[in-house]
Structures are given as structure tokens and as C-alpha cells.
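ok trying this again, last paste got cut off
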Amino acid sequence: MGKDYQNSMGTDSVNRINESGPRERRFAIRYPFAAEAEILDLKSGMRLSGVTSDLSLGGCFVCTRQPLEVGTRVHLTLKHKNQSAIMLAAVRVLKPRIGMGLQALELDSSSIGTFLRWLYDLRESRGIPAMP
């Protein structure tokens, strides 16, 4: 992260972005969801793959043997039933040897419809009424 960027946000803001822990509260319902996950660490260029265990409006949990450090920003591609959703995400939760929780920061404009359709279908499958 560049010095100018850090200065423009302030030290407290940057520290909050990099923190993770039990004090964080989830703001979206998580649904069980299995999708292939292709992950690119934007800083190192390292590529990982895994499988999601859940999905929410706020992001997903990816099961992978080599999770990245909390705060790492990634390019994430989820693939499910011949559809894909591409997004910028950040690692928010780390569970060694299990995986990592990724917060969706920005969806690719061509992926918004697919991502929302997945969530709509998951809500419907659990009998949760659609929002008005």
C-alpha cells in the first residue's frame, strides 16, 4: 500500500482494514454454496484454487490448503454450473489448513447479475421470501 494512500485514509482507517477477529459482525446471511474458486494474490501474483463452503452478499469462505494472510487483496473468480462471478476481494478471516473468509469489495460489472441470481436461488431454496 502506497504512503500517499495510507496518509489520505489515515492510520486508523488502514489499521481497521487489516484487522480481523471475532469482534467483527456479519451483516449478511451465509448460505451453503459449493463453487470452484480461482484466486490471484494481487501483490505477489501467487495463484490458488479452492472450493467455497458458503456465500453471502458480503463474500464467501474458500476452503484451500494454502490460505493467504489477513488483509491480502485478491482477484477472485467463482465458477458454478457453467457460470462465473469475478470480483475484487480481501482476506478477512484465516483458518489455518482449512481456508479463508473473503470479503467482496467490488464485483465485476458483468458478474453482478450472476452473483445476485445465485443468492436469490439460495434464499428461495431455503423458503426465504424475496425482498419487496
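PB: full thing came through this time. The domain at 28-125 is CATH 2.40.10.220 (Thrombin, subunit H).
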